[in-house]
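Exercise: predict the fold of this chain.
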Amino acid sequence: MADPAVSFKRDLSEWRISLVAWRLLVLQAADPAVGAGMHEHSTYRAHPWRRVEHTLGSGRRLFYQDGEALRREVARLDRAHKRISGTMPDGKPYDAREPATRAWVLLTLFECVVAMRRLGGDGYDAGQLELAYREFRETIAVFELPEEELPETAADLPGYFARYARKLEFNDAARYLLNDILREAPRPRRLWFLGDAGWRVVRALVARVIRELTVADLPPVVRERFGLARTRWGALLSVVLHRGAGLVVPRLPERMRYRSPEERARPSRLRPQRRDARGSRVDRFFREVLDQTGDGFITVHDLRAMAHNVCWQLELDEAAEARVYGAFDGWWEQLRAVMDANGDGKVSREEFTAATLAGCDRDEAYLERGLLPALRAVFTAADTDGSGFLEFDEYRAVFGGPRVHPVELSDGFRQLDTDGDGRITLEEFLRGFTEFFTARADSTSGAQLLGRP
């Protein structure tokens, strides 16, 4: 009979998991394949808070969902990791879907929950640890990892971590997470009231605290391998924070103690309706895509510059170029007719945003008279093998470039590839851009074509 006091899933959702969150990231990044993937494919440098939330949020979703929802989450992770592959600095290939790597990432999540309990003074005893590990194994069975990649029992975990630690590296990703990222981190939106100057002061303190705490809490074998020393101040900080949280958090009411996906997803009666997010997206599209000259206006020359870029990247023949230029000229004529009120041949950012929102609201076919024909021409031109699909290399030829980070490029492709088959149909392509301009919430995939808002 299971011990009702033991639940790995419940412990994972405790707020004090945040005390070992950075430890978790460093341990995962120290795997050579994970570190290489983070360096080439992750936005953790620009969005550290998002990276932490994604890691912990995905863990909560994995362990709190029913069978069908769990399978959807695993499928989502598979799609996200499908293109995370490449070559490590030593020339060896890596793939985020390699079983040993996936097992390490999952097991570090379990190990950090165990560490959270142990450091907090309420660690699992041997029997509780086995029950928690059994619960963990039952949930991750959906990943269908080879049996040899996972320790059979919790008693086998120390041996697994000791062996795996020998392949860990204090690589660029792990070093940056530990030493530098928090010194450069952008201000979280919730701390807007600090201002830039206040955030710089707080950021320096937070960076020092998290580094000292993380080093103090890392397994001794990992500290030794990385050449890190646990300072007295760090050891004291670890005891104070973990033991303090271990005394306080378990005594809180459940609604304050746990942070579960169900509670986050349940709408609050006191929460106001979400604002219409289209305006900020359309404004961003104007600034980052349409305004090629950066002067705050779009003209026929801006759209022809976009057409030129498509044609130049793809090295089209004369007939194909004519079709692309013709489609973009048609888009400009729609914009000019609807938005250029004073007839000066220019459309401002404010005019574009207001007219686009109004047009989409009053006419379902509004985008069909300008944007979508241009996108069809781009799709046809980019589909160089005439397969009817855009592969990633074809997509990159059009949408890549020196100003586009590879991670954002991959993310844009994934947003359009809604069925996750590694290629984009014309329907998926047009639907993604349509959602970008018409979806009121930012939760739809097409709304994130330019990256997360």
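Check your answer against the key: Strands lie at 85-87, 93-95, 297-298, 347-348, 389-390, 424-425.
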